[in-house]
Specification:
Mean pLDDT: 97
CATH architecture of the largest domain: 3-Layer(aba) Sandwich
Order of helices and strands: EHEHEHEHEHEHEHEHEEEHEH
Low-confidence stretches: none
CATH topology of the largest domain: Rossmann fold
Radius of gyration: 20 Å
Largest sheet: 7 strands, mixed
Helix content: 40-55%
CATH superfamily of the largest domain: NAD(P)-binding Rossmann-like Domain
Number of strands: 12
């Protein structure tokens, strides 16, 4: 008899994300089991409990999903899980903490698709990221930096704390990132006179950029905002904007729901892929970005 499919949803947070639970059910998993308040040093034992309780054929119907609110911890957990497996006892894994990997992947894929229309790519861009220390902002920074872009991590208040955070990211991921003051109108205008792309991944309902900040920019080509809660993070960018001009400028904008549609498809299909693949797959932000780029419209 065929074993029921199970997604083991592991998080260090006090609650599993209802969003992830819904996505897993919609992708076809018959059982979704959350494990909360999980510490990094507990992941290996949980993984081995999962793989040793079924035969090699039975574990093909299992997968591990790493959520939470910390992208770095989620990646560490995924690495620990993979290290606890060995053939033939190996199952698929997927890290997408707070949906950050698939959201950032979708946002960057939308930007990349627009740039390609003008024979450009991410590697040629100077990208200013607002909300840079958050889960989506940090992931977008990693994706952009790995594509060769010049990435400016905007500090909205504490430059020292942001510098410390970015130094850790640079060391851990071997990427080039620059911290820039973004705490006032003058500093925002200054950086947007250099940037070709501006991304807003600030907390929901917070207006970060106004038309006054960027309307006079001669360099800016694209802005993207993942905030779906009014007001938008970027003035003039409707949540449904899908590469439309912002106001009277030549700048094009991508809104939260346009990005969100691609994010949904990306997460849905990657979850399904773990069920249908003949071999274990291990999915993180690299894979999410690759899929989103191939399916961006």
């Amino acid at each position: 008899m065929k074993k029921p499919s199970i997604l083991h949803l592991i998080t260090a947070a006090k609650n599993a994300s209802p969003f992830d639970v819904n996505m897993a059910f919609d992708a076809g998993y018959e059982k979704i089991v959350p494990y909360i308040h999980v510490a990094l040093d507990e992941v290996a034992a949980l993984t081995q409990d999962a793989i040793f309780s079924r035969s090699p054929s039975g574990i093909k119907e299992e997968a591990l999903f790493f959520g939470g609110r910390d992208i770095h911890l989620a990646l560490d957990m995924q690495k620990a899980a993979r290290g606890a497996m060995f053939k033939p006892f190996e199952i698929s894994t997927f890290s997408d903490p707070s949906g950050a990997f698939t959201t950032a992947a979708a946002m960057m894929a939308k930007v990349e698709a627009h740039l390609r229309l003008n024979q450009q790519n991410l590697g040629q861009q100077t990208i200013a990221i607002f909300g840079a220390s958050g889960t989506v902002g940090s992931t977008a920074a990693l994706i952009a930096a790995r594509q060769g872009a010049k990435v400016k991590m905007m500090a909205h208040s504490d430059l020292v704390s942001m510098q410390r955070y970015v130094d850790n990211m640079r060391q851990r991921y071997d990427v080039q990132l620059e911290v820039v003051d973004g705490s006032n109108d003058a500093s925002k205008k200054a950086v947007l006179q250099q940037a070709t792309v501006a991304l807003c991944a600030a907390p929901a309902g917070v207006r970060v950029l106004t038309l006054e900040h960027f309307a006079a920019s001669t360099s800016l080509q694209v802005v993207a905002d993942v905030n779906a809660v009014p007001p938008s993070g970027i003035e003039g960018v409707d949540v449904m904007a899908n590469g439309v001009k912002v106001g009277d400028s030549k700048i094009v904008g991508f809104g939260a729901l346009a990005i969100g549609r691609l994010k949904y498809v990306t997460q849905h299909e990657l979850l399904k892929n773990m069920l249908t693949s003949d071999v274990p797959v291990h999915i993180d932000y690299h894979d999410a970005y690759s899929y989103a780029c191939a399916n961006a419209k």
